[in-house]
Amino acid sequence: MATQPSQETPAGEMTAAHPRTVTMPHTGSRPVRFLKQLGTAALDDNLLDIGAMMAYYVVLALFPMLVFIVTVGLLVVDPATVHEGVLMATHAMPESVRTMVATQVSNLIDAADAGFAIFGALFALWGASRGAAALSGALNTIFDRAETRSYWKRQVIAIGVTFGVALLVLVALGLLVAGPIVGHYVADRFGLGDAFDVGWGLGRWGGAGVLVMIVWAILYRFIPDTDEPFRVFTPGALVGVLLWIGISLAFGFYLENFASYDATYGALGGAIIFLTWLWLSNLALLFGAELNHVLAAFRSPRRDL
């Protein structure tokens, strides 16, 4: 019997050499059939294992990314604004994770200089390419795509996506500075009183949610080997972001009331908490992609539903 040649895959990457066809169940109402297929697809794609693998690569990419954002951000905004942005971005995280990130940002602000910014940028781009490689393989598996792009093309895409996401974050930090200035000017000019302060307090959180959805939409579109059109507001991105916020808050509640990681793991307790939160966050991101894929197959007239 002839055997098929094996395919070598670079470390941290997975390929969908034999794309899986989404087959819809034929029993139950449409919502029930959709939920059944979504659960089946999530199990078949081993989201739990893939999320755990990605946690390692996210650790390699996250802190270099912070280096890049903080050092470049300090060129256009003051340190207090960077801190405020970090507090907003980490609001839904468990307290120990939020403290770890905030402490690292403070250390980066203290150490930032021109040479540090250049080194940080180069290191961030390389670290992000490792994280993007893992995410590329994971999303290819979910979307049933065989990787056809060359290694160098994947790295260029990873660098471009990293720079684009960093640019969005920097723009958001800039808006934290310009927003109150412009808003108070308009409110004073038209006699709106405290209306701006109320609207700004609510609107900046809504804007943060939209920013996360844009980031996830970029990852869903450009990281995997797919030719799907770019859409920001997809069901998967919306559900994934809400799921991420809910999981983060629930995990934080669990840590505050039930968990005893320090007693179990000692000095490693904080690291275990951080890795667990990264794993849960990856699951939310992957589940959103899975939902988009199954929903597209469910809507397709070419499928036998």
Number of domains in the coordinates? 1
- The helicity comes to over 70%
Shape: globular
Strand-residue proportion: under 5%
What Rg, in angstroms, do the CA atoms define?
21 Å
Number of strands: 0
The string of secondary-structure elements, in order, is HHHHHHHHHH
Instruction: Determine the oligomeric state from the structure.
Output: single chain
Low-confidence stretches: 1-19
- Could you describe the largest sheet, including whether it forms a barrel? none
Alpha-beta content class: mainly alpha
**Count of helical stretches:** 10
Mean of the pLDDT scores?
A: 76
Give the N-to-C terminal Cα separation.
Answer: 36 Å
Task: Provide a compact summary of the structure.
With 305 residues, the chain is mainly alpha-helical. The protein is 74% helix and 0% strand.
Structure description:
- This protein has one domain (43-299).
- The protein is built from 10 helices and no strands.
- Helices cover 74% and strands 0% of the residues.
Task: Tell me the layout of helices and strands.
Layout: H1 30-44, H2 47-73, H3 79-89, H4 95-111, H5 114-142, H6 151-189, H7 195-222, H8 235-257, H9 261-265, H10 269-299
Helix pairs in contact: 1-10, 2-4, 2-5, 2-6, 2-10, 3-4, 3-6, 5-6, 6-7, 8-10
Key phrases:
mainly alpha; 74% helix; 305 residues; globular
